[in-house]
């Protein structure tokens, strides 16, 4: 399967307008944003766990990173409440699920295969002091990518350049970028060479941003 697989194009997906698709596990549904591959795939997805649902134990051969958008994600390593950012690098394993139910934004098979840096962070706890109405936390940085989380006051603009493209998830509020209004749940991908300029709406915005990673995009090594 290929979905939004041309990384040289600007892509906007309003995820709240997508239907939920059933996964192989009962109670776990998905909204696919981009994908190269079948059940084993280089994928960017919003996943919803019904209360009491879980996946069977599995190893993330190509790594997994996710944000908890609502509810509480759980596995044998602990409880991960709303606002948690998690990186599970290649070779890590777990049995994910959620007793109360949750929704996560998850990326699979997008790691450096030698990465072994596993961690979790409360994104809001990492925020620095605001500058011109924008407070930003650097969540992760390596030679391939930089991952940040930003709070924008109403009318504030997040403007940045970075070789290797951008990916943006609107966690709350709204922004205007490139003539598009992106509300909660909207996902934007900008190709290598593009600049990001996102201006918050009247309620401000919370944005997760990954930069620099698109030249490394490739199918899973299976």
Automatic annotation (TrEMBL):
InterPro entries: ChrR-like_cupin_dom (IPR025979), RmlC-like_jellyroll (IPR014710), RmlC_Cupin_sf (IPR011051). Residues 9-111, 133-214 form the ChrR-like cupin domain. This is Cupin. It comes from Litorivita pollutaquae. The lineage of its organism: Bacteria, Pseudomonadati, Pseudomonadota, Alphaproteobacteria, Rhodobacterales.
